[in-house]
Amino acid sequence: MIKMPHVIPSYSRFPVAFIRGQGVTLWDDQGMAYLDFLSGIGVNNLGHCHPKVVAAIRDQAQNLIHTCNLYRIPLQEELARILTESCFAEQVFFCNSGAEANEAAIKLARKTMFERKQSHRYEIITTNDGFHGRTLATLTATAQDKVQRGYAPLPSGFKYVPYNNPQAVEQAVGEHTAAILVEPIQGEAGVIIPDPDYLTNLRKIADRLDLLLIYDEIQTGMGRTGRLWCHQHSGAIPDIMTSAKALASGVPIGACLTTSKIAAAFSPGSHGSTFGGNPLASATALATLGVINDDTFLQSVVDKGNHLLDGLKKIASQNKMVTDVRACGLMAGVQLNSSAEEAVGVCLSRGLLVSCQKGTTIRLLPPLIVEIEEIDTALAILASVLNDLF
């Protein structure tokens, strides 16, 4: 582990320090260039220093960085309008991160049941190997022992079921159940893509049993899969949806989106955020959406994603250590039959940033602005690394 005497060692960091970025490329303090196929864990969907994002930050910083939510924030109101026009939602609560957005969704689900005079319904069903954040409530919603270990007693009110198994969800519903919280694609678990009718079946269960359906679109949203929101591939709309990560291209912001009927449970003073949706974050998110929320741009994500998937399948056909390739848009996982950690480290040494998920999966999340030539370069590096190691 890299020693940083004044930083709490809650991360295992690679011995690389990046000091500049442009597009899909990062440069470290030694002058070496890297293809960033991790995008800051799905944050830099427009790459590094996109001119429209930079201009929005610069211009807004010269005028007003922050005011609080005790007053109107016109840029926040405009951002909420564009977000709601992009999906099922009618109103938005803004915060600072994905964990906070999921906290808001959990609180909103419970508060909705309370307002319905059903306060005994507080339980949230989540899925094994999901990931929803690091606060006490969201790490409890995250059904992974490695995330929860050492933090007992955890908050009550969560029940876990296998992913991609609607029958297990239905069997888990009881008198205390309020909502189902699920990722349309599990990212941290290694890009686990469910059956095409999975979300549709969850929607049917929620409707039949009077539950709220919550989608965590923090990693899958903002164009990552070729639609602005991943659930739009299925047509199965949620009651509540969360967004963060790429929403403002690296400026911290989170959002909890829902219908007006459900949003009414949050009356003044029932929830809040000091920084949520402040002028700087809202201006940056508006600039980001202005690029991504475009049919031509999103189609390019589909096309480039298909090219990436074809290349990964070719690698898989030539290397017996690759057991599976999973992808949707520019979100891909390469499953190995051994540890992926060494391969990720060697990729780094050869100028390619990817990550290791669940021990045996290499995850690729390139910026959505990536060019075909850059995809081919990344594929060549990955192929060489796997061939040399295995």
In the sheet with the most strands, the strands line up as 4-10-9-8-7-5-6
Arithmetic mean of pLDDT: 97
Order of SSEs: EEEHHHEHEHHEHEHEEEHHHEEHEEEH
The CA-CA distance between the termini, in Å, is 26 Å
Poorly predicted segments:
none
Query: What form results from the Cα inertia axes?
Result: globular
Q: Specify the CATH class of the largest domain.
A: Alpha Beta
What portion of residues belong to β-strands?
15-25%
Percent helix range: 25-40%
Please give the largest β-sheet.
7 strands, mixed
Structural class, by secondary structure, is alpha/beta
Counting structural domains, the number is 2
Radius of gyration based on Cα positions: 21 Å
Number of strands: 15
Q: How many distinct helices? A: 13
Here the CATH topology of the largest domain equals: Aspartate Aminotransferase, domain 2
CATH architecture of the largest domain: 3-Layer(aba) Sandwich
Written description of the protein model:
The chain has 390 residues and is of the alpha/beta class. The chain has 2 domains: 18-49 and 295-389, Alpha-Beta Complex (Aspartate Aminotransferase, domain 1), CATH 3.90.1150; 52-292, Type I PLP-dependent aspartate aminotransferase-like (Major domain) (Aspartate Aminotransferase, domain 2, 3-Layer(aba) Sandwich), CATH 3.40.640. 37% of the residues lie in helices and 18% in strands. The protein contains 13 helices and 15 strands. The protein has helices at residues 39-42, 51-63, 74-85, 98-115, 136-141, 145-148, 166-172, 198-209, 260-263, 279-292, 295-318, 341-349, 372-389, and strands at 18-22, 25-28, 33-36, 91-95, 123-127, 158-161, 177-182, 212-216, 240-243, 254-258, 322-328, 331-336, 352-353, 355-357, 361-364. The strands form 3 sheets. It has a 7-stranded mixed β-sheet, sandwiched between helices. A 4-stranded mixed β-sheet has the order 1-2-3-13. A 4-stranded antiparallel β-sheet has the order 11-12-15-14, with helices on one face. The model has no long low-confidence stretch (mean pLDDT 97).
